[in-house]
Amino acid sequence: MASGKLLLVIALALTFQSCAGSVSHSGDVPVPGVARTLAEQRATVVSNVVYDLHFSIPGDRNAPVTGKLVAHFELNDAAQPLVMDFRVPADHVLSVTFNDQPVTHQVINDHIVLPAAVLATGSHTLGVDFVSADTALNRRDDFMYTLFVPDRASTAFPVFEQPDIKARYRLRLSIPAQWRALANGEEQSRQPDPAASGMSLLQFAETLPISSYLFAFAAGDMQVETAERGGRTYNLYHRETDPDRLARNRDAIFDLHVTAMDWLEDYTAIDYPFGKFDFFAIPAFQFGGMEHPGAIWYRAESLFLDPSASRTQALSRASLIAHETAHMWFGDLVTMRWFDDVWMKEVFANFMAAKIAGPAFPELDLDLRFFQAHHPAAYAVDRTAGTNPVRQQLDNLRDAGSLYGAIIYQKAPVVMQQLETLVGADVLRQGLRRYLSRYALANASWPDLIELLDDLSQEDLRAWSQAWVEEAGRPRIQARWHDNGITVSQVDDVAARDLHWQQPVLLAVGRDGEVQTFVAELRERSARVELPAAGRPDFILAGADGVGYGRFELDDASRHYLLIHVHGLASGLHRAIVWQHLWEELLEDRLAAVDLYEALLVAVHREQDALIAQQVLGLMRNIWWRYLSDEQRELRAETLEVTLWQALTGADSAGQKGAYFNTLVEVTATESGLQLLADIWRRHRDIPGLPLQEQQFINLAETLALKGVPDAEAILDAQQQRISNPDRLDRFRFVRPALAQSAEQRADYFRSFADAANRRQESWVLDATRLVHHPLRAEAAIPLIMPALMLLEEIQQTGDIFFPLRWLNATLDGHSSTQAAETVQQFLHLHADMEPKLRAKLLQAADGLQRAARQTGGL
Length: 859
Description:
Layout: H1 2-18, H2 20-23, E1 25-26, E2 29-30, H3 36-45, E3 46-56, E4 66-75, E5 82-85, E6 93-98, E7 101-102, E8 106-108, E9 111-114, E10 122-131, E11 143-145, E12 167-176, E13 180-183, E14 187-192, E15 199-204, E16 217-220, E17 223-229, E18 232-238, H4 243-268, E19 277-282, E20 289-290, E21 295-299, H5 300-303, H6 311-326, E22 334-336, H7 342-357, H8 366-382, H9 406-423, H10 425-438, E23 442-444, H11 446-456, H12 461-470, E24 475-481, E25 485-492, E26 503-511, E27 514-522, E28 526-530, E29 539-542, E30 551-553, H13 556-565, H14 572-587, H15 593-606, H16 610-626, H17 630-650, H18 654-667, H19 671-681, H20 694-706, H21 712-722, H22 726-735, H23 743-751, H24 762-772, H25 778-781, H26 785-790, H27 792-798, H28 803-812, H29 818-830, H30 836-857
Parallel strand pairs: 3-12, 18-19, 19-21, 22-23, 24-30
Antiparallel strand pairs: 1-2, 3-4, 4-10, 5-9, 6-7, 6-10, 8-9, 11-16, 12-15, 13-16, 14-15, 17-18, 20-21, 24-25, 25-28, 26-27, 26-29
Helix pairs in contact: 4-6, 4-7, 6-7, 7-9, 8-9, 8-14, 9-10, 10-11, 14-16, 15-16, 16-18, 17-18, 19-20, 20-21, 24-28, 27-28, 28-30, 29-30
């Protein structure tokens, strides 16, 4: 036996040495994750993949999920080892067969490897009996759901995990008999499982070819609502226990999907390709939604709106549904070849969602909505030292999660709007139709699309793409009056690069109470607008169309004028842009925080547009907690509370009242104000026109405890007894230790998150982390910053794609002190060799803290 093992080791070593370049090895084995070199090699030799998968999912979440895979595929080159991805301990691989025979293999570094010596070209089957890791199975007491994006499928089953090896999936599930299940394919049969008492065996239809991150299934105790629309059946799976909440939202949810489907079929000239259309409203889901074909996951809270929901929230729901539905074409039908182009599916989903959802809300200013939904969030990253290009280099799929963020979700749609303006809406639509038709059920890249559009347009799209897509950052743009005209100039903050961003810049020029607009075509370093008959204006507002993108610096006269007179601008879009420009001025120390706060307080009185009112409230909350000292807040607390209550009373709709009430809950600090909130929580007092729901009472109880009211524990005890929904109750119990009055108890609880098992429910962990690091408790939480940062690399490996940045934000957003900022700087210094993309996430998250500490503490 010993000599046989030695010969096997030697044979494997020689085999690996012969394929070093293609498997991206470290020594003589493939590296962990999926290296791009491995993916490129596999894509040339593996094709026509079909996975037969059988999972057995016990009702006990602590019992292992086991499975059996039979992978069918064509191999057109047998000179290299065959590497299949499976990120589990070696003992989770129970057996491996090749063409139904036991086979020599190695389990190492996230892979099952078959040596070239056992391979041959042609059709093959690879069988594996295995135990899944729980990493991507999201198991709770009575339900579970998979979430495999971007590279988590290989934690559940062996797979060729790369987007350009699409496969057909034939799925069987063994689940507790009382559970329901859904998956990409339609359920074809259900019968008692002959191999397991009390279990049912479900067979699902074979899927069309899809990438591994799009394969999905869910099972558990859930209900289903069904609707017929236009000859198509839609199924909504959910766990909502409030029948009124379900009834209030049911038809709207179905109708919004139908609207999106009809619009996309018309725009693309391609019928919905994936057969059945189901979706699952998941309590506390990690994302807003996830676009698995035939089985979309949604965050339940985003679908089931309260009666007090604003029209903005209704538009957000419509946009979310349109976004996920658009993915059926953009991302699912045509998928990026490699995850460096993951932004493409997101930008087109967002871009289409704006076109689909907007017309149903004619009372809302959609240009204003587009600006608010994209520019502030994109600027929040692009202004930082950690910013990144829209299209990013990716060498290993295990780092793909770090690509996600505001640049691809918020900046990229602005870039796409610029592209549509540049080439024309008809040309863009024609190009996208060709793109979807040519690459249907296959893969494509950004250069593939640019090549198609280049053939249809006279513009140099490759040069345009270099600035907007391939490079990071934003232009710094000035619009200055001199010599009877306005010169618009741009500067690259990276001086050595000296990049020029081509875009039209709309100028709003105010003089004597009137506003005129002019366009400067900024194609090179500067552009000139001549105004020979006019005198010096009161203000110049650049980027006034809400599409122009950059750091638009106000001149001194414009800043002073707009700070005082912003409320009088007739255009709501202009007011929103002014507020954003003034915020940027504050962040660069060109405007005092107190001055901007006082202007915002006036806006609470005067602003009538609901969208802008919410923007004003958001900026005010940020300044309140991060840029005002304790003494400044104490001096202003009573005035702020009175102003907000007056605005709430005067608001026309429950949605507007809700926005003011939520801000009141967050900022109330006076004894009388807290007593009023406590009376509302006790239901001794109602708010006319604002019916509160269970989640709002939960928020009230948590806030009262956070602010240390005398009977905090009694309030929490009573609230826990009140909660009727089991998922909301589980979440409340989870976060409650973060509300402890003892700093030591809160610290012990926070440190428990070092155990990955305690981080399974990521949205709950984030809620608890925000409470521990709330500004009111920030000083006590400073010693917890370094432990939180030390967990970052592990969180990237074990958490879902948005979790690392959200973990950082939840930890740092409540802090503004010099000591907190210095802790982050110390960590960065000690970890100078940190993975660059992860380091960039930390720089993004810490930017606000660093700026606040510089202004308030002299960092």
